[in-house]
Write a structure and sequence with these properties.
This protein has 96 residues and is mainly alpha-helical. Helix content is 52%, strand content 8%. It has one domain (10-92): Orthogonal Bundle (Arc Repressor Mutant, subunit A). Helix 2 packs across helix 5.
Length: 96
């Protein structure tokens, strides 16, 4: 019998959680999952530099862990439909 494939790929988890910046962004978004964030609001909330926020958002978007909305300026929101995000968000909400 073939082993059941994991719902969440470990490679994606390593990539998604591979920087302090991505952890900070995910934590902030997980705390307020119904809120939309601009790059600027994430810079202020996380203390990250603009270039770091941009780079981290690109990675999170490529994993489909966050969604981008085409307002001006663009806004971002955590993707609560993604299985990996559900697990990670629940974990991150346990920390203050």
């Amino acid at each position: 019998m073939k082993p059941k494939e994991a719902i969440v790929r470990w490679k994606d988890v390593e990539l998604g959680l591979g920087s302090v910046g991505r952890l900070r962004i995910l934590k902030k978004m997980a705390e307020r999952p119904d809120e939309y964030f601009t790059k600027y609001s994430l810079e202020r909330a996380t203390g990250l530099k603009p270039i770091d926020v941009r780079r981290d958002l690109e990675v999170l978007l490529s994993l489909n862990w966050i969604k981008e909305y085409g307002y001006d300026p663009k806004r971002y929101r955590i993707n609560t439909e993604n299985e990996a995000v559900k697990i990670i968000a629940e974990f991150l909400r346990k920390f203050k």
